[in-house]
Every structure is written in C-alpha cells, then in structure tokens.
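### Sample
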Amino acid sequence: MRIRGWLIYSKQDAKENMSFIQWFLDEAKKLDIHLTFMLREDLQIGIMNQKPTILKQNKPIKRPHFAIVRTVEPLLQLHLEQLGIKTFNSSYISRICNNKILTHLEVNKLNIPMVNMFFYNRKDLTHNPPLPYPLIIKNPTGRGGREVFLVKNNHDWVHFLQQTAFEHVLIQTTDVQQGKDLRVFVIGKKIIGAVLRESDNDFRANFKLGGKATWYDLSQHERIFIQRIINHFDFGMVGIDFLFSYSGDLLFNEIEDVVGSRTLSSVSSINTVGKYLSFIKDNIKLEYQ
C-alpha cells in the first residue's frame, strides 16, 4: 500500500512558506509517500446525506490516509478525523495548544513550574490589575509573539483596556529573565533538538521578531522534566517553549502546534521534515496492519 497524504495550508501562509512546503514534498518522494499540497480555501467540509463530507472546489475527492494540517483550525482536524483521516497534529492538540489558557491548565495537572498568572474575560477587567507592575498581557489565541504586551504602569494598563479587542486575556508576572526563552522541538515522543532564543532589544525572544538563535544542549534533568510533558500528550510535531527563572530553571510557557523549523535549521543540520514524515509513515503503517 502506498501511503497518501495531504499537506494543508491557507493561501497566505503558503506564500510565506513555499520553501518549507517544497521540503515536505521532496522528503515525501524519498519515503515513497504520495503527498499532495492542498489549499484550505479549496476545501469544503460539512454533512451530506447524514454523513461527514469533504469536497475540493465543490467536487468529490479521494480521501488520503493522513493530513498534515498547517492551519489553526481544530474544526478542520475534527472533521477529517470523523472521515477516518489521521491528522497531524490531532484536533485535540490543535484545540488545546492554540489556546494558551487551555494549555496552561492542562500542563498544570503535571505539576510543571510556570509563572503566576490570571485568566480573564475582557469584559471583567477592571482598573486594578491582579498582579503588580510590570506585567505581561497576552491574547490566549495569539501566535508568534505579535499579541503579547508589556504593561509597565497604570497608564499602560488603562491604555490596554481602552484599545484591546481580545475576547479573553492572559495576565502573567514578569519574574523571569526578559528577552530569553527556549524552544524544544518534539516529534512524537522524542526530543529532536532545542534552541535558545534571545533578544537584546525586546522582552520577546521570537526569531521572527528579530531574536537570535543558538543551539542549546539540554541537561539530563531538563530532558526528564520536558519528557513529562511529552508523555502526557500525543504529539505529531510541536515546539514546547520555556522561560528562564532568575536562577536559570525552566518555566513552562506554551506549546506551538503549527511549529516551523527556521530556528532549528539555522543552528543545526537536523532534517526535521524527514523525521516528521518518517514518524507519520510508521504511524499510518501501524494503523493499517
């Protein structure tokens, strides 16, 4: 049986990630996987004649064995799963990991250290924040560090209240080393690499926001600590992000569902996509044995 899969991107994301898409297609050929690039906008999902249905440009399409979903849309993964299509990542991982509040609540079950924080509905925010200044405000569903704000004083807080359109808000302390974090890349149950991200001019260390990246050698203690999180979930490929306490200990921050590999590729020769597709191929083979 030749394994068939879809690689799904939105139009906008596809424009920004063509080299990454081509990397997927090239590695799939090496592994004898028939991988088809699909635009999310071309797919229609719903229920017809009491059965879950998927169409491409309003026409029936042969279903694949799996789909790599590179959009943030848990509903799409859930629908594909109901059609019997294995998704990477799963709808559960997509739903939890694309909401920072849900992620923290889930990881907190493992007694993993993290900074102090509060969760709010936007309408319930008052002129008195629950934590002392300075503090961090995040959109729980934001990505790439773009909806993360440093609030230094009451003036900043009032300005945020007046301007924000977030439905929910995550408020955290700043009791960490600023402009520095760690991204750990994971495929399945294995750590494949870790990258230290640092910024000299921003409290955020995101690579896309101008941060610099260097390879990070995890200690045995850190590996055991991180593996507790990995064993709790059924990941395809994710990035687990950590902050650093003032004493250098790791503090859980978030899990990136639709993770790229720019930073890992910039500091290593690890074939992330090849490893990911090999993992998927082995997973699908087990399902059809």
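The first strand starts at residue 4 and ends at 9. This sample (Alpha-L-glutamate ligase) is used throughout the tutorial notebook.
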